[in-house]
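Session log. Operator J.P. requested a structure for one protein chain; no other inputs attached. Running the standard single-chain path with token output.
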Amino acid sequence: MTKKTLALACLLAGLATGPTLAHEFHVEGLTIDHPFARENPRVGGAGGAFMTITNAGDSDDILVGASSPVSDDVELHTHIMEDGVMRMREVEGGIPVPAGTVVGLQPGGYHVMLMEINEPLVEGDEFPLTLIFEHAGSVDVMVSVEDISAGVHGNMEHMGEMDDADDMDDMDHAEHMEDMDGDEMPGDDMAPDTASD
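Structure written below.
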């Protein structure tokens, strides 16, 4: 066996036995792909959880809530442009997940807001998050804490545009943009997004 062949065999063996890179969760026709959060070492600050949700079923659904042991107050938020300033708003009625679409929860758009986190969110760690859907019910996911200061996560780049600003209330949560890690969220010019498969 040549050195080149041996090296290739070792590589293939490593791929076969190594850990999977998949980070997705399933419930009732929905796939939640790569839940992740922006790191924030400050207890008492705010955190945000992001992901993509694919609805491969025939029925529309709605993400109506979420909970996590890292925060006693978990809300669904989005960003909207108001008087030339990007501001956060809590979503009323939940985040729609229509049949046959991919919905992006991402910086600058829809996201799960973790108010007053009770433990540091450190890069490389994970924490549990329960997502509550109107029809599919609850699903437990693990959220990876990542450094996303460079921009929107790569898995989000294919999302299209959807404007649901009319569903937002008048509460002003703009101050939480700085609580995330001291800087404004990346992608502040982005609208809530979905895209068809």
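Operator note: Residues 62 and 134 are 5 Å apart (CA to CA).
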